[in-house]
Structure prediction request, 323 residues.
Amino acid sequence: MLKTRSLIAAAIIGLAAHAATPTTAAAEGTIPVIVKNTSTYYWRVLLAGARKAGNELGIEIAELGPQTDSDINGQISVLENAVANNPLAVVIAASQYEALGKPIDEAATKTIVVGVDSGANSDAYASFVTTNNVEGGRAAGEALAAAIAKAHGDAEGDVMLITSVPGAESLDQRAEGFKAVLADKYPDIRIVADKVADGQIVTGLNIANDVILANPKLRGIFASSEKMAVAVSQAVAENNLQDQIKIVAFDSNEQLVQHLADGIVAALIIQDPMRMGYDGVKIAYAASKGEKVPEMVDTGVNVITQENMDSERSQELLNPKID
Prediction:
């Protein structure tokens, strides 16, 4: 528990240092990059990719975002303030599909808007750089079925799905893909709990413990975000149920990589946030100069297990250089 808190605190402190650096200087040559929250490792990696692109282009990257995924109004305010400073373009990962639609429409009347990671209900994006999250959810379903079969002899039994916040496009798509692959290929795996948290690890931990208590035969959990992955892996470890309950989770941080090595987590579904941030800024800059840019860029999905976690590509994704 203390280790978990210290890792989370380190991540928050580390990102706060980045976010406090050059941000809203109203000048030509600035591209704000707005993430969903400033407290998770995933977004630190994406911002590192953005900084790398900014350094190569010789432009300033404003690293912005609310403290939590659930602060939708906070992200809208960040977007409005960023646009008011007359940037070259804005790169944004929308926290909520519906709520960010009109603010992004409005922003796009004043500057170029490039989406990364998660979209909004808007047709105003100049380009979108993301993971195919439906396929990522399907990959998670396949990985969980394989882990359950390896542990219990058959791909069957009760499982749980937990999502960080409601209404986030990427998370909804992951759940869609996960449910679809189970229905298509693994009808004997039953989702007995489909839960939505509030973006907080402690909430996810409480939900996971409640579900584990209510379902003593639970065999698997799919956590569709980094924070929920931390929550459920902690719950399973504290209950000493890692041999019974197999976890598959999206994204990673130092703690989750260690849980993968220790066998508490069966597989991590890894995106490429470094590339998202890098490509997002490069594309936004090109669009601001009137260049033709791709409508969509798929940055790929990677399934990492104990068996392949030491490969060169896995290590690049699990331990990116972010400073």
